[in-house]
């Protein structure tokens, strides 16, 4: 990808479900490499729809979504799966770890799906767990970890295949204050190291601490796009 | 509709797959059980009715008048265990020839030998002969023939050329004795005059016994009679149970395997319905909580879930009855025809008892999970929402994670360990399905062997007819008298032609004759063998094949009918000549109702009959092209007056019907087992839909999802298949002898041990096929589940 090309390029994207009003309406948005974009808005404003379209979990009714040079909206089911394996890492509000796999096995999962050599995958997982300071839980099952620890595991899993883009859906939404702060710090560190991040959140402090840009959605439309996240959340 | 009714209806309508599974499983179980019970009861009804109406003879006994007097025989009416007796009736084996033309036969046709009894009245205390047409005897110039014995009707005149004075009698009636006590009846005086002068008289006595429900009880009655007369006076006897078995054999042969399928079906129903209701309870924990919070009592919840099983089960029962009745029609019609009555019908109580039993089993199967639903705590049910993870199977996940397997395969293989009880139930369903396949294949192989061995002379690929009015196999020898009979081709010339023909392997000759055999009512067809036929003889049940003069081989049915065993002797009589042959072997074949006697041609010669082979059966050498061989052979045989044809056998319609029914029931069981797998995988997929969403979000491709789901059942399928094969083989080995017993035959060991190693290996894969086939559809659904939706499912 050329340095000037955005990681995410959404052109006139709309998404309508049935006869109802559009969940997203004519959204045009681009995200540059290294940016940390926080998508803000009330419930039902279209934040999750936007994230699903970028992740290739949903398709726009009209318009196009390009991520890292790939037209996500034109991919087949198998192509979407390959895209998510290689280009995107996802972090969810409720962690979405598999309860019957150990922490290490959860983290290894994307690498195994992508066919990464086992030794390389194990080394990468061990490195990530160490970087995220959860290596002492490597053989534990997720059910025994705190919320913050589980989210760190989820982040490690999301980063396993070195994705161009990290998507986070309310990553602090299910965490207590201390754990939330922990995750905010982690995301900020990742962005500082060059990781492009799009996060959907209600948590203004999260946006303020780790986003370099905010977009506010209301009724499926972008009503505000602010380059300085701190400025946006302080208004 | 009550609140409970609405809940039940909504539950049934909402879970269409599960509802369809329950309908299918009960349909199959009820169809097979209904047919088994119905045919067992209904096939016997016409005989039982006729036997009661005619006060049929429990035992028909033949006596040698040289050793016992008529007065002594009259006294046997007071023998131990005898409640009523008729006779003694003078009997004589004679041949008749038509002396007038009728619509059926022209004048001058020689008829097979018949046993004629001298009997003044049709009625009496035992064997009240039922007139089908015409009248009973009023004079010595008359004869009444038994139905289906001779092809004549009232008004036909029959002459008896071998009897003193060659008398001619007029057929005045056609009658039926339920146990076939004679082929024809004349007045006692006429019976005496038909016998050859100077010979010892033969008598028949008909007995009703106090206890005659079993073979052993009838045998005890026979023993008492044997003891009541001088030694050797009782020359033969026939139990009404043997006749009953012959009359109902075809219908009763269906019963053992139908009963096996019925039991398999009911067990599978219980299992599948248990899975379905258990899954419905597991998946609807939140719904149960809501129902309880709205005021449903635990008992109402239990009734709601039992009702959700009973409604589709009732539909399946109704459909099963309809299908069962339709399938029973052709079999029962045949039973009715045997007694000139309407088609036998299955009694109403079976229409009630079979579905009632099925519904009770369904209710019991549903009750266990329904009680669990009733006991769920309301708050816990509402807050739990979806089925919580069990925490089981972690070790399996760790182990499969260490193996060098694709991730989808590793995840799939560990899947069954997360819910071991559900996996075990699914495995049991697959075992039932795969066992049914093994059982069904075994039955088909056994019936195939019966089909190919049921006719004599079926081994050779070429049959050479030598002319001379030789009847086709199984047919009675009826030839037109008067004109000179076409001479049979010279056997020496035929043998020389066969030996000279390139491609001829082995061959032997046979000829047939109708004679009287001691202990057997009516004529017995003797099949006489010339040459070594050991390679082509019927499969042996016990004893040996013929290897010398004076020997005979017969079937189990013949042995039972004559009341003899291998090693005993049978006396054959033809025109006053007697030859005694020793039974050296018990064979299996159904040609001629399995009542033919196989013996060397020397036996016929001793009886003064033409022993020239009427047919040669030839086995060609391997690699011989049949059409060319036949053309070349016929060039040689044509001048000799013989013709060679390809040896073809007709198929038995009963076996074809059995094969069709077995195929249908096996398929139904397999489908139900597959639906059981499908239902379990659907439940599993539902339980794990969130995990599936996560995996897809992490990049699991649709093909990998399908692989994971299919792999999760493949291991179970393999194990279940390995278990199912011995179960199916054992079931086959248990059931097939009963099928033989039903038709009065013992199946040879080669017809029971029908499985070979490659077949067993293939059948072992049946479990895998059923499991994978059942999982494919839900695997596809899992692959198509929208990730975003799955992730939102909590």
Layout of helices and strands:
The complex is a heterodimer of chains A (235) and B (794).
Chain A: E1 8-15, E2 24-31, E3 36-40, H1 47-55, E4 62-67, E5 70-71, H2 77-86, E6 88-91, H3 103-114, H4 118-131, H5 147-159, E7 165-169, H6 177-192, E8 196-200, H7 204-210, E9 213-218, E10 221-226, H8 229-234
Helix pairs in contact in A: 3-4, 3-5, 5-6
Chain B: H1 3-14, H2 16-53, E1 59-64, H3 70-75, E2 82-94, E3 97-98, E4 114-118, E5 130-134, E6 142-146, E7 157-159, E8 168-176, E9 184-186, H4 188-194, E10 202-209, H5 215-228, E11 234-239, H6 240-283, H7 285-293, H8 298-338, H9 348-375, H10 378-384, H11 394-402, H12 407-414, H13 420-453, E12 462-465, H14 491-500, E13 504-517, E14 523-530, E15 540-543, E16 551-555, H15 556-562, E17 569-574, E18 577-587, E19 597-600, H16 601-606, E20 615-620, H17 626-637, E21 643-646, H18 653-687, H19 689-697, H20 702-742, H21 749-752, H22 757-764, H23 766-784, H24 787-792
Parallel strand pairs in B: 4-9, 6-8, 14-19, 16-18
Antiparallel strand pairs in B: 1-10, 1-11, 2-4, 2-10, 3-7, 5-8, 6-9, 7-8, 12-20, 12-21, 13-14, 13-17, 13-20, 15-18, 17-18
């Amino acid at each position: 990808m050329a340095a000037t090309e955005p990681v995410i390029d959404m052109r006139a994207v709309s998404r309508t479900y049935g006869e109802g009003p559009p969940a997203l309406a004519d959204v045009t948005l681009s995200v540059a490499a290294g940016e940390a974009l926080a998508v803000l808005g009330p419930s039902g404003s279209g934040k999750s729809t936007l994230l699903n379209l970028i992740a290739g979990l949903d398709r726009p009714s009209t318009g196009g979504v390009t991520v890292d040079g790939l037209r996500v909206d034109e991919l087949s089911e198998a192509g979407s799966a390959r895209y998510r394996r290689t280009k995107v890492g996802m972090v969810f509000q409720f962690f979405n770890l598999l309860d019957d796999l150990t922490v290490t096995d959860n983290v290894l999962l994307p690498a195994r799906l992508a066919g990464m050599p086992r030794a390389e995958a194990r080394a990468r997982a061990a490195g990530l767990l160490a970087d995220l300071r959860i290596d002492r839980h490597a053989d534990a099952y997720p059910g025994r970890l705190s919320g913050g620890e589980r989210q760190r595991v989820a982040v490690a899993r999301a980063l396993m295949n070195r994705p161009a883009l990290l998507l986070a859906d309310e990553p602090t939404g299910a965490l207590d204050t201390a754990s939330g702060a922990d995750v905010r710090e982690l995301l900020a560190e990742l962005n500082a190291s060059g990781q492009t991040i799009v996060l959907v959140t209600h948590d203004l402090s999260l946006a303020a601490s780790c986003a370099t840009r905010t977009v506010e959605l209301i009724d499926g439309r972008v009503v505000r796009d602010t380059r300085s996240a701190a400025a946006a959340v302080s208004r | 509709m009550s609140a409970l009714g609405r809940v039940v209806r909504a539950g049934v309508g909402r879970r269409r797959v599960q509802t369809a599974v329950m309908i299918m499983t009960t349909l199959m179980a009820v169809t097979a059980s209904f047919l088994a019970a119905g045919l067992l009861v209904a096939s016997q009804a016409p005989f039982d009715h006729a036997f009661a109406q005619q006060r049929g003879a429990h035992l028909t006994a033949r006596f040698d008048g040289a050793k016992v007097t008529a007065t002594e025989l009259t006294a046997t009416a007071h023998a131990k265990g005898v409640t009523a007796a008729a006779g003694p009736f003078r009997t004589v084996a004679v041949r008749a020839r038509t002396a007038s033309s009728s619509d059926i036969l022209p004048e001058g046709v020689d008829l097979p030998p018949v046993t004629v009894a001298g009997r003044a009245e049709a009625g009496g205390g035992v064997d009240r002969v039922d007139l089908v047409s015409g009248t009973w005897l009023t004079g010595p110039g008359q004869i009444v023939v038994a139905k289906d014995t001779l092809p004549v009707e009232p008004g036909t005149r029959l002459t008896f050329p071998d009897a003193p004075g060659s008398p001619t009698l007029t057929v005045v009636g056609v009658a039926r004795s339920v146990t076939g006590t004679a082929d024809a009846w004349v007045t006692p005086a006429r019976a005496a005059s038909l016998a050859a002068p100077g010979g010892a008289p033969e008598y028949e006595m008909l007995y009703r016994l106090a206890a005659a429900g079993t073979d052993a009880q009838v045998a005890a009655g026979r023993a008492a009679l044997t003891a009541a007369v001088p030694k050797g006076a009782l020359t033969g006897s026939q139990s009404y149970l043997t006749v009953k078995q012959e009359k109902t054999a075809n219908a009763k042969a269906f019963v053992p395997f139908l009963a096996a399928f019925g039991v398999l079906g009911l067990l599978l129903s219980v299992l599948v319905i248990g899975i379905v209701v258990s899954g419905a309870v597991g998946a609807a924990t939140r719904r149960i909580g809501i129902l309880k919070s709205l005021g449903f009592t635990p008992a109402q919840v239990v009734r709601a879930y039992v009702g959700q099983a009973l409604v589709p089960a009732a539909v399946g029962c109704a459909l099963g009855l309809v299908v069962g009745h339709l399938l029973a029609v052709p079999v029962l019609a045949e039973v009715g025809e045997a007694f000139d009555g309407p088609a036998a019908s299955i009694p109403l109580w079976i229409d009630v008892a079979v579905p009632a039993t099925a519904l009770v089993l369904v209710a019991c199967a549903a009750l266990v999970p329904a009680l669990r639903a009733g006991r769920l705590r309301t708050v816990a049910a509402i807050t739990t929402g979806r089925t919580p993870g069990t925490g089981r199977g972690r070790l399996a996940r760790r182990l499969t994670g260490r193996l060098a397997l694709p991730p989808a395969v590793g995840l799939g293989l560990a899947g069954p360990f997360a819910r071991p009880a559900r996996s075990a139930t699914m495995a049991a369903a697959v075992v039932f399905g795969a066992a049914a396949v093994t059982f069904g294949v075994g039955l088909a192989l056994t019936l195939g062997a019966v089909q190919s061995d049921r006719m004599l002379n079926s081994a050779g690929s070429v049959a050479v007819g030598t002319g001379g009015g030789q009847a086709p196999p199984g047919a009675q020898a009826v030839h037109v008298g008067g004109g000179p009979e076409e001479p049979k081709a010279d056997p020496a010339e035929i043998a020389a032609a066969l030996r000279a023909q390139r491609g001829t392997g082995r061959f032997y000759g046979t000829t047939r004759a109708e004679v009287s055999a001691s202990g057997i009512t009516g004529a017995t067809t003797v099949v006489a063998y010339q040459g070594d036929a050991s390679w082509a003889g019927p499969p042996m049940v016990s004893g040996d094949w013929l290897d010398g003069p004076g020997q005979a081989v017969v079937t189990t049915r013949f042995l039972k009918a004559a009341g003899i065993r291998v090693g005993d002797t049978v006396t054959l009589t033809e025109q006053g000549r007697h030859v005694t042959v020793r039974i050296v072997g018990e064979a299996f074949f159904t040609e001629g109702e399995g009542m033919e006697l196989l013996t060397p041609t020397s036996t016929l010669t001793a009886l003064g009959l033409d022993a020239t082979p009427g047919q040669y059966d030839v086995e060609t050498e391997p690699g011989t092209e049949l059409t060319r061989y036949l053309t070349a052979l016929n060039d040689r045989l044509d001048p000799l007056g013989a013709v060679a044809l390809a040896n073809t056998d007709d198929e038995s319609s009963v076996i074809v019907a059995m094969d069709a029914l077995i195929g249908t029931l096996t398929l139904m069981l397999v489908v139900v087992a597959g639906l059981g797998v499908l239902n379990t995988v659907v439940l599993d997929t539902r339980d794990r839909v969130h995990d599936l969403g996560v995996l897809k979000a992490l990049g699991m491709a649709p093909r990998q999802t399908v692989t994971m789901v299919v792999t999760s059942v493949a291991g179970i399928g393999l194990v279940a298949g390995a278990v199912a094969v011995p179960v199916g083989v054992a079931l086959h080995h248990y059931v097939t002898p009963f099928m033989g017993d039903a038709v009065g035959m013992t199946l040879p060991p080669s017809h029971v041990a029908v499985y070979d190693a490659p077949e067993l290996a293939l059948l072992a894969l049946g479990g895998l096929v059923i499991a994978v086939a059942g999982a494919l559809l839900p695997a596809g659904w899992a692959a198509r589940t929208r990730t975003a939706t799955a992730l939102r499912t909590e």
